[in-house]
């Protein structure tokens, strides 16, 4: 394993934080462990060589490799299930009764390998039933990691990964591939638009605001100022009456956000 020096560690931490908002100051071992094989494989003598190469690389492949390796993408179906229950029982009835144009806009920010947006798509499909065809309910799902997005687009999961999925969903929305794996069916796949997107971009490219934003267990890697700035930008891109869902370990300080508290880790723009 290649050892990272204090100066190399500082440079990488500062670069990732300033460009992607992720604070890796406590992750020296992670950086060293996850990047050493890449450095050896590509013939770099140390982290400084890779860092300088990354800054010169116009293709963006070097920084993509760095982010793919250093970003954490742990998720699973029905994670923090009470959020999905609230979305089904409270948010959907409100939105379907008020949106006369039937244009429902949802953003899964930090979607990782797709479990969250696919879960939302299945809830919406069940809720709307035969009326689904009269609605535009496609979900925008974004992440900074091209690696997890490639996996999400495929929609292939081991059977033990869908243990928490309700039996009716497993029957209606998944297809068996072999004895170990299954795949999300096209009906649900077509409801999710996956895109690579960095939440630290200077401007959000969206033409319309969202009725619901899910950004769960992403901001735990951000410092307070980065988190506060991102929340304010989310607020700007939330429709009046719309909702923000964050992770349970990311609850917002009520005095620092214009969103109004609803239930733990759920907020609303009123």
Please outline the helices and strands.
Elements lengths: L5 H15 L7 H14 L5 H10 L4 H10 L10 H18 L7 E4 L5 H14 L10 E5 L2 H9 L1 E3 L8 H7 E3 L4 E4 L1 H4 L2 E5 L13 E6 L8 H13 L1 E9 L13 E4 L2 E3 L2
Parallel strand pairs: 1-2, 1-7, 2-6, 7-8
Antiparallel strand pairs: 3-5, 4-5, 8-10, 9-10
Helix pairs in contact: 5-6
Concise overview:
The chain has helices at 6-20, 28-41, 47-56, 61-70, 81-98, 115-128, 146-154, 167-173, 186-189, 224-236, and strands at residues 106-109, 139-143, 156-158, 174-176, 181-184, 192-196, 210-215, 238-246, 260-263, 266-268.
Task: Offer a few descriptive terms.
10 strands; Rossmann fold; seven-stranded mixed sheet; Chemotaxis Receptor Methyltransferase Cher, domain 1; alpha/beta; 2 domains
């Amino acid at each position: 394993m290649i050892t990272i020096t204090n100066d190399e560690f500082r440079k990488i931490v500062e670069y990732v934080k300033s460009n992607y908002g992720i604070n890796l100051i406590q992750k020296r071992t992670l950086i060293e462990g996850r990047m050493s094989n890449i450095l050896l494989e590509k013939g770099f003598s140390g982290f400084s060589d890779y860092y300088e190469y990354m800054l010169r690389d116009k293709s963006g492949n070097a920084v993509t490799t760095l982010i793919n390796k250093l970003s954490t993408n742990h998720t699973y179906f029905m994670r923090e299930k009470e959020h999905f229950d609230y979305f089904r029982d409270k948010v959907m009835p409100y939105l379907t009764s008020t949106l006369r144009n039937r244009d429902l806009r949802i953003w899964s920010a930090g979607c990782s390998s797709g479990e969250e947006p696919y879960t939302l798509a299945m809830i919406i499909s069940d809720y709307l039933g035969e009326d689904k065809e009269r609605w535009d309910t496609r979900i925008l799902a974004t992440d900074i990691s091209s690696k997890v997005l490639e996996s999400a687009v495929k929609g292939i999961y081991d059977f033990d990964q869908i243990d928490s999925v309700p039996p009716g969903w497993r029957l209606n929305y998944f297809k068996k591939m072999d004895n170990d794996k299954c795949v999300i069916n096209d009906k649900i796949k077509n409801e999710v638009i996956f895109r690579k997107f960095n939440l630290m971009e200077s401007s959000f490219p969206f033409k319309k605001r969202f009725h619901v934003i899910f950004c769960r267990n992403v901001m735990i890697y951000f410092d307070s100022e980065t988190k506060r700035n991102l929340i304010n930008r989310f607020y700007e891109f939330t429709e009046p009456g719309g909702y923000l869902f964050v992770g349970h370990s990311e609850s917002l300080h009520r005095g620092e956000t214009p969103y109004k508290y609803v239930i733990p880790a759920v907020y609303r723009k009123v």
